[in-house]
Amino acid sequence: MQLSKKQTGVFKGMALAMLISIIVISLTIFLDPFHYSTINQLSQKLTVLGLSLILPTLFLLVSIGRLAKFRFFSPEDIDGSGLTSATSEATVLQSLLQNTLEQIVITYGVYTAWCLLMPASWLSVVPLCSVLFAIGRIFFFRGYSQGAPARAFGFALTFYSTVLMFLVLVIYQLMIVIS
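That's the MAPEG family protein sequence above. Prediction below.
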């Protein structure tokens, strides 16, 4: 089966995002760039978590704000999508918001579990993945209207960095249970 041009573009974006996510997470685990290995209190771990949630939350706020601003200035959309047939621009902004909300729910859970359950020396992964989340959202927002290949990298960087954290977390916890 031969992939279409769009499928090939999506695959390339996904593969690059996966590679970047693997490299960032692996190097961060091994190098502890923020020197969090000295953290020994729950309050310090929660501080790392809180700081790491700022960027993802910012992108959710931006998504909500963009749609709200657009609706305010659009006579066709001011009543909201539940009461009107949304214009194409409102539909795009709603899709960006919906996807960001879906990503952030996963992110909040994984970042929280990581900060509570993983070794302190691995905590640097969380703020760096928060940066990957932000970079991914920027690429996703910018590429969305140009189609799947243009948004694939942004989506995948947001998603794969969190999914890889989740997989490492689960494997690490299973190894603890087994040993």
